[in-house]
Amino acid sequence: MLHDEDAEKGGIGRSLRDIILGGQDGLVNVLGLVLGVAAATAQLRIIMAAALAATFSESIAMGGVAYTSALADRDYYLAQLAKERREVEEVPDVETEEVREIFRDKGLHGELLERVVKEITSDKKVWVDVMMRDELHLAPVSSTGVVRRALVTGFSTLIGSLIPLIPFAFVPMFGLSVTAATIMALPLCAAVLFGVGAYKAVTLVGDWRISGLQMLLIGMVSAAAGYGIGRLLHVSGT
């Protein structure tokens, strides 16, 4: 079984991945849409309507994708668990040798190896747990975890989608132009993308500068595509 600390770190890692996935997806998609629509029209009402429609539909869609993906992970784990339990019952000699190979690869040899193998195979629950973790590299997914991943991803997508819209809230409040709001959205989103990428590297693994630049580049290329599509429409800005 995993130690509590290891399980907690794994949970944090999964949650962080879900947050980054949802937040980046929402921010990049809505930023690209906003730039594209703003390139075609200067009417704030149209820009906000399109952006908010995309925000909520994207959030629901990403939450649904996370839910079905987590369900698939859980179902796959349960199927493999049933398979390992059956093999322990039907072909114990083969499964015992697999345990021996696992711990031999970890550096155990001779009498110590045989004692470990005997101890593990004396308890079928422990035996199956070892096969799931060390042979198949699978971790259990609970029903609560499925729902939590969907909520985390969906909410993160919502938050990320709203970030490009922040400057546009200042248009009626301070009399800014749509063009000024569009220009403000770019460095704001760039800073957020770089910060999230850097934080991911610091929290998980990697160089924070490279990770930040990678996420920034992906986001800006996607946003540029949205802007280019808007320019191709050749719609009057009036």
Describe the model.
The chain is mainly α. It has one domain. It is built from nine helices and no strands. The chain has helices at 4-40, 44-90, 92-105, 110-121, 124-135, 143-162, 166-174, 178-203, 208-233. Helix 1 runs parallel beside helix 6 (143-162), helix 3 (92-105) crosses helix 5 and helix 8 runs antiparallel to helix 9 (208-233). The N and C termini lie far apart (65 Å). The model is unreliable at 1-10 (pLDDT under 50).
Which key features would you list for this structure?
238 residues; mainly alpha; 9 helices; 85% helix; elongated; disordered N terminus
How many structural domains does the protein architecture include? 1
Strand segment count: 0
Q: Which outline best applies?
A: elongated
Poorly predicted residue ranges: 1-10
The number of helical elements comes to: 9
- Note the beta-strand portion: under 5%
Whole-angstrom Rg: 25 Å
Helix and strand composition category: mainly alpha
Mean pLDDT: 86
What assembly state would you assign to the polypeptide chains in this entry? single chain
Compact overview of the structure:
Helices cover 85% and strands 0% of the residues.
How do the helices and strands line up, and which of them pair or pack?
Blueprint: H1 4-40, H2 44-90, H3 92-105, H4 110-121, H5 124-135, H6 143-162, H7 166-174, H8 178-203, H9 208-233
